[in-house]
Specification:
The chain is of the alpha+beta class. It has one domain. It contains four helices and four strands. The strands form two sheets. It has a two-stranded antiparallel sheet with strand order 1-3. Strands 2-4 form a two-stranded parallel sheet. The chain is rod-shaped.
Amino acid sequence: MGQKDRMLKGIGAREIGYPYHTNTREERSRYHNRSDCGDGRTIKQEDIRSGQGGSGRTLCKECEKLGQAATTPAPRKAPSAPRQ
């Protein structure tokens, strides 16, 4: 288990509350809404705050990408032509 996984291991979704943000200066412009976000996993436990953190914050690009991937349906296979 890597350092990022250890940081969030004891912080389940119930404890974080989604969305979540950090109070550190480097992260003040964005918030997270995915527990599998690599950037969100680097936030130290003591710096995690529940909610979007007020207006002006945008969703983390990685969370956005992960959310789109989760909601994009798998491509359908074209039906094969009947054999003659």
